[in-house]
What does this fold into?
Amino acid sequence: MPRGVFRTITSDNGLGFSRLYEFEENDKFLVYYAHPYASYERWSNEINNKLIRRHYKKGKYIKNQPEEKVKYVEDWMNNMPRRLFGYRTANELYKEE
It folds into this structure.
């Protein structure tokens, strides 16, 4: 990942993020931790989860899905214009950065 693309990360307090502080110590980006049971503090993550749920039901492991379908969903999400980005896509913003 190119340096400077991500400036901050907001995570939940799950075990998967327990070592995130190591990145912050290396001045790669700032880490913000959401409060327990406060999904509204991670609203863009919740929106992405909602989009993924259009293709995968909750509880389905993506690693058990065909790689072509995972790639399709990834491309679909990265090329979808979003109000958050001024109706530009994540790919457009990534290329600009």
About this structure: The chain has a mean pLDDT of 83. The longest strand covers residues 8-11.
